[in-house]
What we know:
Layout: H1 5-15, E1 19-21, E2 28-32, E3 39-43, H2 48-58
Antiparallel strand pairs: 1-2, 2-3
Amino acid sequence: MADDYYERLVRIMTDHKCSRIPGGKGSHEKWSSPINGHTVTVPRSKSRHTANEVLKQLGIGKKF
């Protein structure tokens, strides 16, 4: 069974007070970080590498 990193990623982002903002296309969402002020496009990916890159861009040190 493949890990679903998206659900875990959303939980980590909301725990760090990141918020979903309008925009994004298809299976992608836009999220904003209060940590560094960056906005990131988040795909509904099952990739550990993609999840780690999103966290890095949002300024969250947590790694999968």
